[in-house]
Specification:
The chain is of the alpha+beta class. The strands form three sheets. A two-stranded antiparallel ribbon has the order 1-4. A two-stranded antiparallel ribbon has the order 2-3. A hairpin with a 6-residue loop joins β2 and β3. The longest helix has 18 residues. The chain is extended and about 60 Å long. 8% of the residues are buried.
Length: 125
């Protein structure tokens, strides 16, 4: 079961000013059975890849930022990008990191939520 928010724009006729209002939409939303079957089918299809262990984290790797705005997970992602691109430096937008990595075996499926946006890597010389 999931929840959704309903947003609406109300315009004050006297002033012409627009206001954004939010409503919880009445609570729980039941998943559509056809969509749930489709999602389950694709999860089953990708499980050989998403459940493959690709490494082990000896401790939690988090997106918690230090006073310089860096995080262990951000550093790891930037280092991976740098290695992939064969460059001397790489940048990772900390706002794009969406999940931490828990200690223990790490699967490909664990890595995907960390940085779910499609990001293009570029290199300059």
């Amino acid at each position: 079961m999931g929840f959704f928010a309903h947003e609406a724009v109300d315009i004050d006729p006297a002033t012409g000013i627009a206001y954004l209002t939010e409503d919880d939409g009445g609570g729980a939303v039941l998943p559509d059975p056809a969509v749930a079957r489709l999602v389950a089918d694709y999860k089953a299809r990708i499980s050989p890849i998403s459940e493959r262990v690709v490494g082990t984290a000896s401790e939690d790797i988090t997106r918690t930022q230090n006073t310089d705005g860096e995080s262990e997970l951000g550093d790891l992602i930037a280092d991976a990008q740098r290695d992939f691109a064969g460059t001397d430096l790489a940048f990772m937008n900390s706002g794009g990191i969406r999940a931490d990595i828990a200690s223990g075996p790490v699967t490909y499926g664990d890595l995907s939520p960390c940085s779910p946006s499609i990001t293009r890597s570029s290199g300059w010389s």
